[in-house]
Amino acid sequence: MTVLVTGGAGYIGSHMVLALVDAGERVVVVDDLSTGFRSAVPAGVALVEGDFGDQALVERVIAEHAVDAIAHFAAKIVVPDSVADPLGYYLNNTAKARNLIESAVRAGVERFIFSSTAAVYGETDAGLVTEDRPLKPVSPYGRSKLMVEWMLEDAGVAHGLRSVVLRYFNVAGADPKGRAGQSTRNATHLIKVAVQTALGRRERMQIYGDDYPTPDGTCLRDYIQVTDLAQAHMDALRHLRGGGASLTCNVGYARGYSVKEVVEVVRRVSGVDVEAVMSPRRPGDPAAIVASNDRIRAELGWVPRHDDLDAIVGQALDWERRLHNREGD
Ligand SMILES: NC(=O)c1ccc[n+]([C@@H]2O[C@H](COP(=O)([O-])OP(=O)(O)OC[C@H]3O[C@@H](n4cnc5c(N)ncnc54)[C@H](O)[C@@H]3O)[C@@H](O)[C@H]2O)c1
Ligand SMILES: O=c1ccn([C@@H]2O[C@H](COP(=O)(O)OP(=O)(O)O[C@H]3O[C@H](CO)[C@@H](O)[C@H](O)[C@H]3O)[C@@H](O)[C@H]2O)c(=O)[nH]1
């Protein structure tokens, strides 16, 4: 039995590949390396360079590797880019996911784990977001993912495909053993940008909007450590292999930090007085979004082990230093 990981050369997918290899699982990665890196796939793991929407390719991989489960990470992921290029996002994240789901059904793969996002909720009022909140995504990115959730639900009813949909909140940090991290070029994620600024890779950073209805006026987010997130997928895989029913779960720590608080943590942990310039709001950003994680704890037995923003920032700093030494990868 082999797990097919789409997007396994990317940031989060590569941590999932490590978790699978650490657990003794067989893995095959399909990745077109559009934002991922060959070097992120550990030696000994098969990397098929190609498009996950290419049904002939995917069905051949499923047959050749005896795939019994698919963990689908591959996507375009930048919220403001999705506002500028919605059709590109709907093609890659939605239309190609339709093909992949059809390939799973045709090839008899019955287990599917999907990387969804907190962006499916859109604006939320105060309090922790539970999975049954109304889904009103405010960006094409969020909509492109929500449609995949619906396809999985419908394919489950029609074809018996069982799925775990994981709605990640803001993913950050790196493998605590230093084997993987976020290598994304021109990254837009807050912690990565702040850490790069601390290390002098960027002169200054921007804080997008301080007039939100939040305690300090900047946006609140729930930062989930990437190894804890990979573990959620391992728990989901065990659930599906054990015959568990389809499920949708948030993955977050139920604790929000404002943009200003994150920048302060980066200043403290790095010892550098990062220059952060107040700027206008960025399109597509909801004011606050913090997860309830009761369901994933109860249904999948997920236990977070890395819920510590100082440590997350420390891992991101370590990885960024290492990346700099390896530039040209
Ligand atoms: N980073 C976050 O904070 C976050 C939060 C919520 C959800 N997610 C979701 O997690 C998943 C992984 O995100 P990431 O941060 O690791 O991004 P990433 O860009 O590092 O990884 C995406 C990977 O998918 C590959 N890819 C993209 N389109 C492809 C295609 N058509 N065919 C084959 N490969 C393709 C890229 O080359 C890359 O390796 C995405 O689905 C994203 O929507 C991320
Ligand atoms: O240089 C920066 C970068 C970000 N921000 C702010 O920081 C917050 C977090 O932004 P970012 O790290 O870009 O994450 P999000 O836009 O919240 O989106 C992330 O988190 C979502 C889930 O919540 C995922 O679906 C997306 O893929 C992922 O990019 C937002 O308020 C941004 O406006 C800044 O102020 N300055």
What's a quick, concise take on this entry?
Belongs to the NAD(P)-dependent epimerase/dehydratase family. With 329 residues, the chain is of the alpha/beta class. It has ten helices and 14 strands.
Strand percentage lies at 15-25%
- CATH fold field value of the largest domain: Rossmann fold
Q: How would you characterize the largest beta sheet? A: 7 strands, parallel
Mind telling me the C-alpha Rg? 19 Å
CATH C-level category of the largest domain: Alpha Beta
Numbering strands along the chain, what is their spatial order in the largest sheet? 3-2-1-4-5-6-11
- Overall structural domain count: 2
Structural summary, described in words:
Strand 5 (111-117), helix 5 and strand 6 form a beta-alpha-beta unit. A seven-stranded parallel sheet has the order 3-2-1-4-5-6-11, with helices on both faces. Helix content is 40%, strand content 18%. The chain folds into two domains: 2-171 and 223-251, Rossmann fold (3-Layer(aba) Sandwich), CATH 3.40.50; 190-220 and 254-325, UDP-galactose 4-epimerase, domain 1, CATH 3.90.25. It has 329 residues and is an alpha/beta fold. Helix 2 (55-65) crosses helix 4 (86-107) and helix 4 runs parallel beside helix 5 (140-159). Bound molecules: nicotinamide-adenine-dinucleotide and uridine-5'-diphosphate-glucose.
